């Protein structure tokens, strides 16, 4: 199974169409839609969640704890 990233556009009739590369043969496919929220606060929250997941290992690394209250 492979992945292909496509940018699609939803029209005013809520219809979605796409053209796929020639190497995609006929048959059944699974499509997962990921869309950006229109709510800016929700987008910021998603960004913060993603950053915390990506950086969690670094934040938990004891070697990164090089500062104390005294030296700021």
What does this protein structure show overall?
Helices cover 28% and strands 0% of the residues. With 72 residues, the protein is an all-alpha fold. The longest helix is centred in the last third of the chain and has 20 residues, at 40-59. The protein is elongated. The mean pLDDT is 77.
Q: Radius of gyration from the CA trace? A: 21 Å
End-to-end separation in angstroms reads: 51 Å
**Could you estimate the helical fraction of the residues in percent?**
25-40%
Question: How does the overall form come out from the CA principal axes?
Answer: elongated
Average pLDDT score: 77
Name the structural class: mainly alpha
Quick gist of this model?
By secondary structure, the chain is mainly alpha-helical. It has one helix at residues 40-59.
Write the layout of secondary structure elements.
Layout: H1 40-59
Task: Give structural attributes.
0% strand, 72 residues, 1 helix, mainly alpha
